[in-house]
């Protein structure tokens, strides 16, 4: 508790000094900075839909709105090796053998690739 209190006190002192420094320098460029931030925030930003799931040994996730590629991230939560089979529309399917406790990713390229299914298998081949 003591160290945490000292760290919080040090962080508070640093932020207070940064605010004091930035408040003194703000009037010289405040107008230009406001215009630049308005231009940047006016651009539309798309939210990436992340799909997450689990099988018996694997947890996985991937983004849903890929236009030229989709990357599937996976983690083998079991102690033994297992295979994960990923079926993707508009791209070649993959079967990846993953050791126990390991994690990796696989990128699929193609025209509008979409993940159709992710299954756990006992062997690849």
From TrEMBL:
Give the signal peptide range.
1-25
Tell me the domain of life.
Answer: Bacteria
What keyword terms does UniProt attach to this protein?
Answer: Signal
Protein's UniProt name = Beta/gamma crystallin
Tell me the organism. Answer: Nonomuraea polychroma
